[in-house]
Design goal:
6 helices, elongated
């Protein structure tokens, strides 16, 4: 655990209002002061897409977005790199609740005091967690939570956000493309009622087995009909309930030579 250093306050207030900043402008606002959000390098460009797809597809997530601008006050507008929750499909700055989970990526050129101020404003506005993914040095994630010391989650460890995400996330999923793709597939399958790709394969195998059982039941009926035999109600019920392919095959074979219907399902 690491105590969060207090962030120096900006001169207050600045001259700008949220309604003076247009979508697409490269600025956020902190208490009326414009904060330049400059273009990033390759790592900072790739990682939010990688992490965003994992977070957006989590079965518990209804909405997520990149660089969504939240009007916290008339002079403060912040846009997390990834916002999870409370991202409406509508134009303009978002004036509703802040996202419960926000993710920031920090690489070359990151102004630390600006980042810490942004974290404080998000948490102060109602965000429950801010995850800062450090792309320089050993890759790690700093977890900020209101009223709690900052903690660092390292390689091989997982992140959780109860009530926001269903699944725990290994930190590698926030910047490693292969890991993100694997977990995105898992999430999409879970959204369709499967726990994993193995579950899809097993359902396919079971569908094949059921088709085989249905075919054998029909073959049994056809053989009996051709030979002028008919099963009684109890035997018919046994045939319909049987799920063992070997047993059904044996009954079909027996039906070809049985002298009476009672000899078929014994």
């Amino acid at each position: 655990m690491n105590e969060v250093e207090p962030v120096p306050k900006l001169p207050s207030p600045g001259p700008f209002k949220v309604d003076q900043i247009r979508p697409g402008d490269r600025y956020e606002l902190s208490n009326g002061h414009a904060i330049l959000c400059a273009p990033t390098g390759g790592d900072g460009a790739r990682a939010p897409i990688v992490g965003g797809q994992v977070l957006d597809t989590d079965p518990a997530v209804e909405s997520a977005g990149l660089d969504a601008g939240y009007a916290i006050t008339e002079g403060t507008m912040r846009a997390p790199d990834i916002a999870v929750g409370n991202v409406p499909d509508a134009p303009g700055w978002i004036k509703g609740p802040l996202p419960p989970l926000a993710v920031e990526y920090a690489s070359v050129g990151q102004v630390e005091v600006d980042l810490q101020r942004k974290i404080g404003e998000l948490l102060g506005g109602g965000t429950r967690w801010v995850w800062v993914v450090r792309l320089l040095g050993p890759r790690r994630v700093e977890v900020y939570e209101a009223g709690q010391p900052m903690r660092v989650v390292g390689a091989g460890e997982q992140l959780v956000a109860p009530g926001v995400l269903r699944n725990a996330i290994p930190i590698e999923a926030l910047f490693d493309r292969d890991t993100a793709h694997e977990l995105t597939l898992r999430n999409l399958l879970q959204r369709r009622g499967y726990e994993s790709l193995d579950g899809v394969r097993e359902e396919g195998r079971e569908e094949g087995r059921e088709e085989g059982r249905a075919g054998l039941r029909q073959a049994l009926r056809d053989v009996l009909h051709t030979r002028g035999l008919a099963l009684g109600p109890e035997d018919l019920e046994r045939v319909e309930a049987c799920r063992d392919l070997a047993t059904l095959r044996a009954w079909v074979a027996r039906a070809t030579t049985a002298k009476t219907s009672s000899d078929v399902v014994a």
